[in-house]
Amino acid sequence: MYTRKQKHVLIKFFSMFSVVRGYNILVIVIAQYLTSIYIFAPEKPLRKVLFDINLLMLVLASALAVAGGYIINNFYDSEKDLINRPNKTMLDKLVSQNTKLSFYFVLNFSAIIMASYVSFRAVIFFSLYIFAIWFYSHKLKKIPITGNLISAILTITPFFAVFIYYKNFDTVVFVHATFLFLIIAIRELTKDLENLKGDLALNYRTIPIVYGETTSKKIITLFTVLTLIPAYLLVNKFEIGRMYFYFYSCIILLIIFLIFLWKSSTKSHYLILHNILKVIIVAGVFSILLIDINLVLKRIL
After folding, report:
1. Rounded to 5°, angle at Cα 146 from 141 and 150
2. CB 40 within 8 A of CB 173
3. How far is the C-alpha of 252 from the C-alpha of 84, rounded, in Å?
4. Which tens digit of pLDDT belongs to each residue from 236-268?
């Protein structure tokens, strides 16, 4: 049986885990390693990638910086989230704002320390990234369209740290990045529809509020159609192994997404759409394995 003190510590842990969205951090770490193995450095032996200390430090720095970003975002959005996500917000509030901010600075400082192990350029990269996350949360988030696009860019930025480290400038890397960017941008635009009530109450200038829900849906539709371009190129112009199964499945899901989008009008509807996009993103991470299902075995042997 847990003592009262142990229960209190456990509740605080789950509260902070919720604030930093630990499940998202885990997905980012896995994604960075899989992209390193299969996309950024496919010619390198598996052991050299997995046990590369520089790569580990870049991945840890990314995870810490992103976790810090979730904290500062939570800090600025606490009132809005109380309206849009009351249950999660009540869990998050079990940790005080002062504790969150202290943890925020510790995480960012730790990220810089990790980056310093790699190079001074890595320190500059992550310093700018941490500042960009804060500036987005403080200023840019409330600007329609610009805020959505900046959020999508910040989400894929950790992959650029690994991309720069391996100096892989193959076209396929940019096409993969474009597909991911568009999917994340669609998710950000959909979240604005989902969070309409809280955004309206706190005077956030999002696309649905400034231009209306119909315009927002038209923009989402445009981005969804644009997503088909990198999906087509990846399937037909590049060697991606059996990952084409993933892109064909994405096309089907995105068609379903669009049909449901134009029939949606409530928060619960938009939440379903948001979850469809989450499935596409998470499935995309693990579908990287389909590029060459035997690659790991080949490298080990």
Report:
1. 70
2. yes
3. 29
4. 988 888 899 999 999 999 999 999 999 998 889
Query: CA–CA separation, 119 vs 54, rounded Å?
Result: 9
- What is d(CA 173, CA 256) in angstroms, rounded to the nearest whole number? 27
Q: What is the C-alpha to C-alpha distance for residues 285 and 270, in angstroms, rounded to an integer?
A: 23
Range of the domain at 33: 10-142
Q: What is the CATH number of the domain that holds 249?
A: 1.20.120
Q: What is the DSSP string of 150-186?
A: HHHHHHHHHHHHHHHHHT---HHHHHHHHHHHHHHHH
More confident residue, 170 or 8: 170
Q: Do 179 and 121 share a structural domain? A: no
Residue 284: what pLDDT?
A: 93
Which residue in the block uniquely carries the two structure tokens 């995105």? 254
- The CA distances from residue 75 to 14, 22, 135, 293, in Å, are 17, 17, 13, 42
Is residue 295 within 8 A of residue 38, CB to CB? The reply is yes
Residue 118 in this model has a pLDDT that exceeds 90: yes
Angle between helices 97-118 and 4-19 (to 10 degrees): 60
Neighbours of 272 (CB within 10 A): 14
